[in-house]
Amino acid sequence: MKKLRTLLSLLVFTSIISCNDKPQNYLPGSIGAINSVTVVMDNELWKGEVGDKVREHFAATTVGLTWEEPLFTISHVPPRVFTGALRNTRSIVYVQLDTLNSSHIKKDMYATPQRVAVIKGKSNQEIIKNIDTKVSEIIETFKNVELKEAQTRFLKSLNKEGVLEKRFNISLNVPSIYKVGRQEDNFVWMSREIQKGNMNIIAYEMPENSFSTDSTLVRDIVRMRDSIGSLYIPGTDVPGRVTHMRTEPAFSPSVFPVEIAGKKAVEVRGIWDIKNYPMAGPFITYIINDKENNRKLVLEGFTFAPATNKRDYMFELEAILKTVKFK
Q1: How much is the pTM?
Q2: Rounded-to-integer distance, Cα 298 and Cα 211, Å
Q3: 258 three-class SS
């Protein structure tokens, strides 16, 4: 009787588990290099005006670099070979002649995280129109998923020096490969070595009323950057010359309104150089309106990597700066 009761209890338990067991859809992790996009379309479309339109948008020149580099690295595959691991790439554009005229973005179709932009039309002209209409949203969506992927990778090993918390009462997910090189009362400089140069992060604060009017904003930003450069970022020792970082005077930086950590901010992209010395590279600056602390918090990333593509270096810096949190 005891064995029978044990057997009955086991059967009841197994029955309960089976009833509550719902099928799960397990997706593999997405793959691919940062800022890469897989474009799926027939060869005929790719070689013609539809392919030209895709390249026009997704391979457009990245803003603020020292030479032309595409926004995304594009890989084209025809639908018949879009199988296996190719379906697990993170950002996908699927273009097709169809009886439907539509454009939409799907989430995590074959892997996670993943975004698939599906663009269909009954003619080339309808497809092109759908691309033009939807492309801004698609690019923003792709960029966001790429930023989050980069930020997730940072979490594997973070810098624990704590200087930014101490100086500015903020946190930033900076990879441990970056080290603090200089710190003052109102200035922190962190950097890492790369194969042909270095990548840098600086932070400082300005008075809340530093920028008086929109009409002089760009000029005021340049003046601010140049004054910080002259104080804290020296150039190479050259007898009889004053050398320091400044905003490249031949190129006006681009300024965009953004939101960082829930606060209003501006994003500035441009070229830096060293006064009186042949060194230059791209920078990205965020000037954050931190009203609670009566200040403008300035976070900047810049790269020195001569004769090297810099898009992905600058993207890494952007991803780091956008992890800022105010204590």
Answers
A1: 0.89
A2: 13
A3: strand
